[in-house]
Specification:
Elements (H helix, E strand, L loop, with lengths): L1 H22 L7 H12 L4 H9 L4 H36 L18 H14 L4 E2 L5 E3 H6 L17 E3 L9 E3 L4 H9 L12 E10 L11 E11 L4 H16 L5 E8 L2 E10 L16 E10 L1 H6 L8 E8 H9 L12 H4 L7
Parallel strand pairs: 1-5
Antiparallel strand pairs: 2-4, 3-4, 5-6, 6-10, 7-8, 8-9, 9-10
Helix pairs in contact: 1-4, 2-4, 3-4, 5-10
Length: 362
Amino acid sequence: MHTNCNFIYKMILEKINELLQQVDSLEAKNAEEVEKLRLKYLSKNGELNELMKDFRNVPAEQKKEVGMKINELKQRITDRINALREACTTQESGDEAIDLTRTPYPIQLGTRHPLTIVTNEIIDIFSRMGFVLADGPEVEDDLHVFTRMNFAADHPARDMQDTFFVSQHPNDVTKNILLRSHTSSVQARVMENMHTEDGKLTGPIRVICPGRVYRNEAITARAHCFFHQVEGLYIDKNVSFTDLKQVLLSFAREMFGADTKIRLRPSYFPFTEPSAEMDISCFICGGEGCGFCKHTGWVEILGCGMVDPNVLEQCGIDSKEYSGYAFGMGVERITNLKYRVSDLRMFSENDTRFLEEFQAAD
């Protein structure tokens, strides 16, 4: 028995010395090889654990010596593997460093949203006709959204079922706060700041008002609780309906093609008189009639009219000396006509597959 114990003692010492010699020559090219070395020497089934199994049979008087050598071996293996792991990590980090001499990485570029593309095109057309941009708050008061625009006190637009109200004043409706239902409120702010105390204009008003608006509607493929508008306003002396018609004809031909025809149908808006809806000849069938234009040959695109004298007076402008016209269109409507988008919800869902279709249009 004593001879057998001595044999185990010598065998384990030889194994320890053999492993100590191996440790200094361990090499690894990457993290995967480092992990293989760790498993080979330090795992549950590794070389060090096998030594511990034999260590149980070492004579008691020799356990201290053998235990110290096993601990030394374990520390040497651990240090070597950690050093190899650090070297591989440093090398991989260096490989990923930015090389400023390389050509740019292939970064996938985005594109403008289709509503932005169309809005910019509309603004560009009217800018070339002398209109300038005007902007205003989306959270507005009743005074500028409805009162200045000649809406009756009992008009449905002043109902919570049609408009999003933030707060309501118990005694004065003009102080109600709401999400604007049209960008006409911007026109009101421009008019009230462009005249003297006696109602004289400080200069002609020719503005274009793009922006987001809100209405309390159910969200469907054909309607949304928010959408985008572009409205226009021109106020000066001797402005006529003929001026309005010519401006809108020029816009339609710039937007939809030189052969586009327009027609104006009588309509009603609280802020214009006379008022009209404008149609363009269907650019798909050339006015012959198709499913897109419901076989009429015409497609409605905007509303317009001469500014009601009450609106001018509400905004402090002398209606006996000045006249003007206004028009407004939904950007989603124009975008649908240009690109035939079947569902309005796609404009606000941010589906990149849908947005990527407009890269060529940008």
